[in-house]
Amino acid sequence: MSILVDKNTRLIVQGITGREGEFHTRQMLEYGTKVVGGVRPGRGGEWAVDGKVPVFDTVKEAVETTGANAWICYVPAGAAPDAILEAADTGVPFLVCITEGIPVLDMIRVRAYLDQKGVRLLGPNCPGIITPGQCKVGIIPGHITMPGNIGIVSRSGTLTYEVVYALTMRGMGQSTCVGIGGDPINGTSFIDVLEMFEDDPLTDQVVMIGEIGGNDEEKAAEFISTQMSKPVVSFVAGRTAPPGKRMGHAGAIIEGGAGTAEGKIKALEDVGVRVAKHPEEIPQLVAEAAR
Amino acid sequence: MKLHEYQSKQIFARYGIPIPTGRVASTTAEVRQIAVELGKRVVVKSQVLVGGRGKAGGVKVANSPDEAEQAASKILGMNIKGLTVRKVLVDEAADIQHEIYLGVVINRAARRVTMMASAAGGMEIEEVARVSPEKIIKVLIDPFIGLRDYQTRQIAFTLGLKGDQIRDFGVIANGLYKAFLDCDASLAEINPLVITGEGKLLAVDGKIVTDDNASFRHQDLAAVRDVDEETSSEAEARRFGLSYIQLDGQIGCMVNGAGLAMTTMDIVKLFGGSPANFLDIGGGASADKVAAALRIILADPNVKAVLFNIFGGITRCDEVAKGIVQALGQVPTLVPMVVRLVGTNEEEGRAILAGAKMQTASTLVEAAQKAVAAAKGEEYVAPPPSPPVVYKPRKHRVAKPAAKKTVAKKTAKKATKPVKKAAKKPAKKTTRK
After folding, report:
1. Is domain B21-93 in CATH 3.40.50.720, yes or no?
2. Which of A13, A134, A256, B395 could covalently link to B126 via disulfide, CB atoms 3.0 to 4.6 Å apart?
3. A35 forms bridges with which residues in the sheet?
4. Which residue of chain B has the CA closest to A8?
5. Which residues contact B314 (CB under 8 A, 6 or more apart)?
């Protein structure tokens, strides 16, 4: 059943009454995700999304009433840290935050707090997660995915969709697609997901999509060499990125010579990961890795 | 956002960090005036948002107001690494006995704010890190506890400070950390923090870089953003909610998604072209946004071809296509265009573009190759089709290593859903309509 989300996921949507929240909750419901409640302070007691989802004033109330085991928020960057902390306090084990633009210092505090609580956060600044055919939490379009045995983990949004689409078009299905997001400080790293894929009976190989900035790919390479037996295929974006510039994602920046695409690609190739020169090479490399 | 030295020092001063007496000036007359007021040896320092000002001749000591004025006449208007010096800071020259590095940074790997210090001040800290990393002291600061006095003492002792310097250093370190937090900085640096001939500590240089994500809660800082921070195109892009970085190539790129935008640049280069820019138009591509993006790209005289690469997930391709057609109505151009639209409603999207004069492509590779050919004024020649990918999913059965090396865990395993031991399903391809 893949990792983190499946047909047993019971989801709370914070910000369900907002434009984004409502739109994406509809999409998730259509896909088959069990959205069991929503949160919007002050609108508790209402029903959202054509009367399908009960709205609560607090996450605590929502979780206690619905028995939810996952949470996602569609709230702006200024409000997101508080929302994440509120959800963490209820003990919901899995939180997803799509929001881009959360200040780094806020994320340092939030992540440290979540570590103390033992709660996992995915994101922020990510498209979420989808286990094809079962559950989607976030904004990854369901129709480009198909169930299968390839685990996907990525720092990107649309680049991930490109890769997933290319695989789906060739009948190469996915077990779970995980977007860890493009921020420098986040809730879940490549290693966290690789470890889960390694332990997942439904995943037989992994595609890892990285980009410049930080050392998550280098750390992943080390993990792959010592802890992973399943094959990994990768692509790293940003070979042509100039140093010192933030390339869209807050975490996509080459600083002091560190975090270059070349460095990451070398680290990965050194441990036997097949690294594609461009995303359309990935299906071929995945097929080769399966032999 | 980068702040100038003089801005950073002004902020430091508010937090009890001793800085030289001085003022900023933008004309040689003002510089002379300040030198007269200070009545001492002064240093005239170019204020531009790049490193290596000293090496470029942008920092000069002057022993008299005449000399100061002369130095300023050379420095003002100087081009340092592509930026024109518009302001100089005139500081009392310090009697420097020893230089220390002190900085507060976001330590990404540790997920902590970290204070770094080194007795090898005055050099780029990255160089020290490369050449003699053992000379750098790093102290991780707990996000809830903050910087402790014992931590600043530890640094002070390691730096070899003595007597009152230990206490003074504590004031400076705490001030720097508080300034860092209050500004939502990603870097706050004093390099060098000097020990003067009198044994006093003085912040002779200062640098603050703030987190752009936090700008919404620092309107005051936003107001002092220097135009040199970014090109005019980058500034305009920011106003439209576009992420844009100017490069020096010939193929303008317009993409939805930062990772995909970087990939588009990479693939253009891979097939022999040169990207002119990074541009992420984000989600939802309204005609106005697309038009703004197109205008910004075409304002670059180097651009010989434009490549649109849009993956429509939630965003619908026909909407994007309409936006492009409308944009071309607002920004007519003769520059050849290649459009790749894939995803939701791609057929409708391509139909809308069929009327407009542009090439379409269905794969990333095809789009890049067409754009490269167009920029060179050459005909696109389709390469021979590659053989289809033959995928035979194989059940992974390699036994795991008996003893697992412990990997430092960030969150407790219980955070993940309990994995149900499902029966091993045969690896079956399911085709999805």
Report:
1. no
2. A256
3. A11
4. B417
5. A23, A27, A139, A141, B283, B284, B344
Q: Do B259 and A154 touch (CB under 8 A)?
A: yes
Cross-chain Cβ contact B415/A241 below 8 Å: no
Instruction: Enter the pTM of the model.
Output: 0.91
What does the pLDDT read at residue B241? 83
What architecture is the B1-19+96-229 domain classified under in CATH? Answer: 2-Layer Sandwich (3.30)
Domains A10-122 and A140-289 share a fold: yes
Q: How high is the pLDDT of residue B285?
A: 67
Q: Provide CATH 3.30.1490.20 ranges for chain B.
A: 21-93
Q: Which class would CATH give A140-289?
A: alpha beta
Nearest residue of A to residue B423, measured between CA atoms? A201
Nearest to A208 by CA among A260, A288, A251, A264: A264
Q: Give B356 or B14, the one with higher predicted confidence.
A: B14
Q: Quick one: closest CA in A to B125, which residue?
A: A256
> For A156-171, how does the pLDDT look when each residue is reduced to its tens digit (9 = 90+)?
999 999 999 999 999 9
Q: Which residues in B lie closer than 8 A to residue A239 (C-beta atoms)?
A: 266, 269
Instruction: Look at B262 and A223 and tell me if their CB atoms are within 8 Å.
Output: no
Chain B residues closer than 8 Å to A149 by CB: 393, 395, 427
CATH number for region A10-122: 3.40.50.720
Interface residue A142 vs chain B (CB under 8 A): no
Where is average pLDDT lowest: A74-88, A96-110, A238-252?
A: A238-252
The mean-pLDDT minimum among A144-148, B231-235, B259-263 falls in B231-235
- Residue B192, preceding peptide bond in cis (omega within 30° of 0): yes
Binning pLDDT at 50, 70 and 90, where does residue B416 land? very low
Alpha-carbon torsion angle A279, A281, A286, A287, nearest 10: 150
Give me the mean pLDDT over the B289-315 stretch. Answer: 89
A140–B contact, CB cutoff 8 A: yes
* pLDDT score for A262: 96
Q: Please, what CATH class does the domain formed by B231-376 belong to? A: alpha beta
The tokens describing B73, both together, are 């006449």
Which of B114, B130, B262 would best serve as a mutation to test chain A binding (most A beta carbons within 10 A)?
B262
pLDDT of amino acid B428: 46
Q: If we measure between CA atoms, which residue out of A135, A11, A137, A15 comes closest to residue A66? A: A11
What is the structure's pLDDT at A171? 95
Q: Which of A175, A168, A179 is nearest to A147 (CA)?
A: A175
Residues of chain B with CATH 3.30.470.20: 1-19+96-229
| A36 CA: distance to closest CA in chain B (Å) | 17
B256 with A69: Cβ contact below 8 A: no
Q: Which residue in A114, A159, A284 is closest to B257 by CB distance?
A: A159
Using 50, 70 and 90 to split pLDDT, how confident is the model at B32?
Answer: very high
3-state secondary structure of B55: coil
